[in-house]
Amino acid sequence: MPVFLEDKNYHYFLRQYTKYVHPLVETFAYCLLGNHFHLFVRVRSKEELDLHIKKDHEKPHYWHVSNGFSSFLQSYTRAMNKMYDRTGALFETPFKRIEVNNDSYFSALIAYIHRNPETHGIIDDFREYPYSSYHAMLQEKTSKINRKEVMEWFGNGASFVKSHKREGFRELEAGWLLE
Q: pLDDT tens digits for the chain (179 residues)?
């Protein structure tokens, strides 16, 4: 079932994500597709949360990451139900979580997430897809994506781009069944 029906839905989804989830996690990559989405996040430590919240001067009521995700998905669902005169759940529960505990997997997962629109036949070239973090990684604009850590991981922008090429991506993906 579609969870994004028009452009404004993607933008609203990201605004709600920023409001409810971003204070609790670091985001390394994302891709929003018509009927699902992929997020690569690391939950902030208690010390990071305390520092992050002090900086923003506001402790959210959804202090635990699972509450943040729940509030986020519920708020998006309520808005979609109201906007499109629908009822019921929009997302399947529970959503899938996969621990990233390997250096190769980190690299493969970033490329996998960004290449997903091409993999699913939504677009011929994933680099042209507007609803992923791929472009944010390569720009200098302020972003909620942890671009610094990702670029340090890959070494530089050229290595990041190379990791997403079909040949390099297939090598990284080998051995990692992601779906």
A: 899 999 999 999 999 999 999 989 999 999 999 999 999 999 988 888 777 665 555 555 556 788 889 999 999 999 999 999 999 999 887 778 888 888 788 888 999 999 999 999 999 999 999 999 999 999 988 889 999 999 999 999 999 998 888 654 554 454 544 44
Whole-angstrom distance, CA of residue 46 vs CA of residue 59: 13
Distance CA 37, CA 130 (A): 13
What pTM did the predictor assign?
0.86
**112: which 2 tokens?**
């996998």
Work out the burial of residue 4: count CB atoms within 10 Å of its CB; fewer than 13 is exposed, 13-18 middle, 19 or more buried: buried
Which residues face 93 on adjacent strands?
none
Instruction: Output the six-digit token pair for 20.
Output: 């409810």
Asked if 129 and 122 count as a contact pair (C-beta separation under 8 A), the reply is yes
d(CA 31, CA 134): 8
Residue spans of the domains in the chain: they are: 7-83, 103-173
